[in-house]
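Contributing new records

If you add data, match the layout below exactly. Sequence lines come first and carry their own label; structure lines follow with theirs. Keep one chain per record. Anything else will be rejected by the validation script.
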Amino acid sequence: MLKVENVTKYYGDNLAVDNLSFEVQDGEIFGLLGVNGAGKTTTFRMIIGLLNPTSGKITLNGSPINYDVTDSIGFLTEERSLLTKMTVKEQLIYYGTLKGMKEKDILERMDEWLKKFEISEYKDRKIKELSKGNQQKVQFISAVINNPKLLILDEPFSGLDPINVEMFMSAIKVFKEKGSSIIFSSHRMEHVELFCEKLVILVKGKSVLKGELKKIKKDYRKKNIHIKGDVDEEILKKIEGVVSVEKNAEEYIVKIESDDYIDDVFDKIKKSKHITKFSVEDPTLNEIFLSKVGEAYEN
């Protein structure tokens, strides 16, 4: 289990992380979210021991994170850290060796991952000759070659098409099933919603929201009503509790302040013709994220 306790980090007079606390259990995928400059990268660097907190402590399975435990950590950085003049094989041997692995084990795991990601034929190609998506695959393999107990993924889906996103998700879930603690960061909230169980949202280094994703969505009172049919948009807008009405190619999306107003909306449209859908749904994580970040900047 990873435990971050009351961690604060200053760069000179600049406060980068402000009294941050969270836990990531074994076999759990945890989302660390925030806009650029929110403190995510600084937090990651403290977790892996590249930076020391100004105050607070970080432990992995009860022990401080130092060179005794870093070989059990995998870190996929947002910025590509590949040595582009090396071949894929040379690159992975290099990273595996840094993690204290024997070359025989590195080569076995490398072949497994290259096959899984369908890039075995690029083993002896130089990194710079690969597409961005395939470079991202090599970057991922370099982060997991040591079968990490703690896996940190900063924007892991950068440069990937939807098919390869699914491939990465499947690989990440394998580590979850093996009991690894996984921290995941992405600006794509739909990716976070797909497999993060708990999360924290940072604004200017401070947590503005944290907890279980299901509970966060349940406690957020605003709801969305999806309606298909012939309805009068202007009438919907005038209903008390309606925040906005949007129309896409298929349906109207009515955003309401809380589920207290569901019946009012239904009463207004129930006599309309050809109503084929009236569905009340929780807001998306993206909506909650934008709301919480906006509130934090206004305060």
